[in-house]
Amino acid sequence: MSLLEARGLKKHFSGVAAVDGVSFHLAAGEMLALIGPNGAGKSTCFNLLNGQIRPDTGQVVLDGLDITGRSPRGMFRLGVGRTFQVAATFGSMSVRENVQVALASHAGESFRLLGDAGRRHRAAADGLLADVGLGARADTPAAILAYGDLKRLEIAVALANAPRLLLMDEPTAGMMPADRRDLMALVRQLVRGRKLGVLFTEHDMDAVFGSADRILVMNHGKLIAEGAPAEIRANRLVQATYLGEEN
Questions:
Q1: Exposed e or buried b per residue across 169-185, where buried means at least 16 C-beta atoms within 10 angstroms of its C-beta
Q2: Which end of the chain offers a freer environment for a tag, N or C, measured as fewer CB atoms within 10 Å?
Q3: Cα separations (Å) of 80 from 91, 108, 215, 236?
Q4: What tens digit of pLDDT does each residue of 187-217 get?
């Protein structure tokens, strides 16, 4: 059984089909990239999967459960994590405290930086930070982290929910090439070790072709290609779409 299935997703805005009959699947332990030129419908598709918007028709199925139209919070409770193009963290808190807040939320607890609150979930937070290479920065204020480390922190925060599925929106945006490679290598390691399913959008083609197990290509709201990186690289329609040669 697939971890995630999109079944005939459609979404119109003012009569225009932003997503037009998109279907695909994602397995646990797989990294799936969603690419396409600007305006292809990637962001709308992503938001349909995450519950930000509801499809006009079609289904989103997580591990056999129809989750179509669930709120982002409802998705979170079912084990769907998300990272964003711009890293979302609390700059006024330490690196560790950011993860502790996420762990407390997952446990259904309130979190206040008073009394013994800073000691709750400390060991678990430190374990997650070690997993993403930030163990030595646990006491550092998040506000002064380098951008690449902020992205790592955002992944640790997402992992605090023990997700089965991780949706990553432009994970390497704003990063230097070496940092991009390191971050995507980290994600692959986490995917394999935790049997996560990861769907990510990305404009950097080196990150896509160097990391994805399979690639989906969208244009004008439709999927125009799907396959392994070598297949996508050789696909004439994909080449024409990215070179702007199609009619």
A1: bbbbbebeeebbbbbbe
A2: C
A3: 24, 16, 20, 34
A4: 999 999 999 999 999 989 999 999 999 999 9
